[in-house]
Amino acid sequence: MSRTTEPSSAGQRPRLDHLVLWVADPAASAVFYQETLAAQPVRLAEFTAGEVPFPSVRLNDDTILDLMPHTMAPRTEVFPGAHNGSGHPLNHFCVALSGTGFDALAARLERLGAPVSETGRGSFGARGAATRSFYFGDPDGNVIEARHYDEEPGAARSSGEDAGA
How far apart are the C-alpha atoms of 60 and 83, rounded to whole Å? Predict the structure, then answer.
């Protein structure tokens, strides 16, 4: 299956910089994401010292998750009507891993006793159909999808139907 592509009018495609997750305990959430996704805490010490309003975790060189405490919701009026989305969780976000990383995450979640969905095949995403995917939740009810794509040169691509992107 080929990737779905559309030309970018600016020449360079945008990259995801960060997502903001509403969480009850930002420090505990940072530990959760560190233990499950090997995300590196950012500004956690500053947050626990009361120097910054929230910590983050780094997923990769380009992307972080901001762990926003629910108490910040009234301060999120960044444009008229923005508060309507404050404090509401998103449906889910997805992380793409190597096949080995996917298996390692599943093993870590099992060791932690975290509930995990059945493994799906062929779910559509940014790079086409995923080889395998599953969903799991964080302590605040945010849903994370984990997936991997065939990455071996010449590997057969999955042609399954969309299992919920």
Answer: 29
Contact between 116 and 106 under an 8 Å Cβ cutoff? The reply is: yes
Report the C-alpha gap between 148 and 125 in whole angstroms. Answer: 10
Q: What is the pTM of this model?
A: 0.71
Task: Please say if the pLDDT value at position 163 is more than 50.
Answer: no
pLDDT at 8: 47
**Distance of alpha carbon 137 from alpha carbon 143, whole angstroms:** 4
Q: Are strands 64-69 and 18-23 parallel, antiparallel or unpaired?
A: parallel
DSSP 47-80: HHTTSSS--EEESSSS-EEEEEEGGGGGG--SST
HSE of 110, CA atoms in CB hemisphere, 13 A: 8
Question: Rounded to the nearest 5 degrees, what angle is found at the Cα of 155, between the Cα atoms of 153 and 158?
Answer: 140
pLDDT, residue 128, reads: 86
73-to-20, 24, 51, 53, 63 alpha-carbon distances in Å: 11, 12, 18, 12, 22
pLDDT in tens, 117-135: 999 999 888 888 899 999 9
pLDDT number for residue 70: 85
CA distance 6 to 18: 22
Are 58 and 64 spatial neighbours (Cβ–Cβ below 8 Å)?
yes
